[in-house]
Amino acid sequence: MTATLTILQAGPALSLQDLGRPGYLAQGLTRGGASDPTALYEGAALLRQPVGGAAIEMAGTGGSFRSDTDIRIAMTGAKMAANIDGESLIWNASHLLPAGATLTIGGAQNGSYGYFHVGGGFATEPQMGSRASHLSAGLGQALKSGDTLPVGKDGGKDIGMTLPADTRFGGGVVRVVASMQTEAFAPETRERFIQTPFKRDSRANRMGVRMDHDGTGFSTDGQLSIVSEVIVPGDIQITGDGAPFVLMCECQTTGGYPRIGTVIPCDLPRIAQAQTGAAIRFEFIEMDQAVALQSRYLKELKSLASSVVPLVRDLANIRDLLSYQLVGGVVSADADPFQEEV
Predict the structure, then answer these.
(1) Could you report the per-residue pLDDT of 102-123, keeping only the tens digit for each?
(2) 20 to 30 A Cα–Cα from 165, which one of 183, 220, 240, 316?
(3) What separation in angstroms does the CA of 196 have from each of 74, 92, 193, 237, 282?
(4) Euclidean distance between CA atoms 259 and 286, whole angstroms
(5) Assign residue 138 a region: left if phi > 0, alpha if psi is -120 to 50, beta otherwise?
(6) Helices and strands, counts by H and E, the chain
(7) What digits encode the pLDDT tens for the residues 228-242?
(8) Predicted TM-score of the model (pTM)
């Protein structure tokens, strides 16, 4: 019998996402997949299963869900209030969702995209090698109330595990490398760009995130003569009104706006997870630094499983238990507590 998960009530932007579809750029299809791929690695580590399975991506808010059998679940990404039949759950951790119980996930408290994982992953039929919905390309569709998703066979049993909190939420410094038109911008414009405090605009989705700022816009003399060419997620296009747009996982594959730089891949989750109004600054780095940072990021993803720890430590598994002072304030049964020491 295949386990199924029913979406009792869907938030406004739920979709099934995995690591996307690499290799279709020449056919006009970007990779797509999760807006925050790091969250997929965290979910796999918490459930101790291979990376690559699909999870439900929740933009801004979640919904309510019910399974017809006991299943393991994990929540990662943007922290959201969650409970099972009214009992609060710890975010960024794995839990058991009993058959027939209702899991309710509320709005994002820190970050923009939350992820709901199940043990065994969701077993929908892959399209072009992926279960991810690429909404701008018409592959898959947004999840809605009443949808039922098949859950894959779960070979694991661990629950009650957690990971240390990450720092990619709430904006911050985002590192970029020079792009095709970076040198076309005057040096003083590039300097003003990196000195400008930006805020994540409310105009943002899986295709791109607009950056808001005070003062005049950014421009280059030759921006009207640029021929459309290949663009990739992370490119920072300067649109006609001078506002930077950071292209995200479902961006188009060609574009004609000048690019002042490109966000390195390991910092794109920081853009994706910034809430509306979050402060962001850009910092140019050299390509060799970017390569080193990306290599370190990938290495850290592969070692995430070693950072998983139990939510509550089991005394039977504490090897140095006898080194702890387990009882304090011990007194003699014959002592008079009202007699002062001399």
Answers:
(1) 999 999 999 999 999 999 999 9
(2) 316
(3) 38, 33, 5, 16, 8
(4) 16
(5) left
(6) 4, 20
(7) 889 999 999 999 899
(8) 0.89
